[in-house]
Amino acid sequence: MDPITFYNRYTDSIETEQVYGESFLKWAYGNPLGRIALHSFVKRPFFSAWYGRRMDHPQTADKVAPFIQQYKMDAEEFQDSPDTYPHFNAFFYRKLKPSARPIADTPVVFPADGRHLGFENAEDVQGVFLKGQKWNLRALINDDALYNSFKGGSLVLSRLCPVDYHRFHFPCAGTPSETRLINGPLFSVSPIALRQNLAYMWENKRTCTVLETEQLGKVLLLEIGATCVGSILQTYQAGHAIQKGDEKGYFAFGGSSTITIFEPNKVQLANDLLEHSSQCQELYARMGDSMATLK
């Protein structure tokens, strides 16, 4: 399999991703025996729940320092000292110092750290991870009334790796609805898996929130579960006004994704995001950085 590369907005260069658990992913999604295991138990919620509980064990605190060193993480960003986390999961969904993620002046910012793809028309997304694959927006949203509101609008997929900051935030100001849970299996959302089947994005367990805004109308916010994601936890209060950059929730252990969808003709996505996405090249940017302006 080809290595996973992305464009780094901050270094202005193409970089190769260090994939956590790469050998297992290649076996599960590329080997016939691995695919049997994948469909027998790896994709099932009990497997991820079991793995999540393992990451809550106090002995896993010993994994924190080697993980930081291996992936060259900046511990100065952390709100708490690395040696204070009671287990690996607490480190995984750590908070950061507010100064570590300044919120840009633009009307819409990235909701999470990660590798992002942006498309002006969510109904015309294809060939993202493999030629011939196309998004199924209706299946993703799983609500015909909402689908009719957002079809033809812009979409941003933000993919979080296990090494990333795993709290997700509101990309713009507004008033959020209650979160709707859409149940499903828990396939990996790594490109290694999505090259096999993009439909994992709209088959997996996911959560959906409608954000009512003054300038942008409705904005649809989804969080996508994945293998070894113990939980998608919401920390906001429905019906209470929020500001751009406020925390919405966090993922427990595992890499995952968020998806932001706008109604048609509401936003202009950032030029570098559109440029690299048109080449099926993800763009790395941090939560709070500029994602879009008003049309």
TrEMBL record:
Alphabetized InterPro entries for the sequence: PS_Dcarbxylase (IPR003817)
Keyword vocabulary terms for this entry: Decarboxylase, Lyase, Pyruvate, Zymogen
Pfam family, any one: PS_Dcarbxylase
Domain of life: Bacteria
The protein's name: Phosphatidylserine decarboxylase
Organism: Rubritalea tangerina
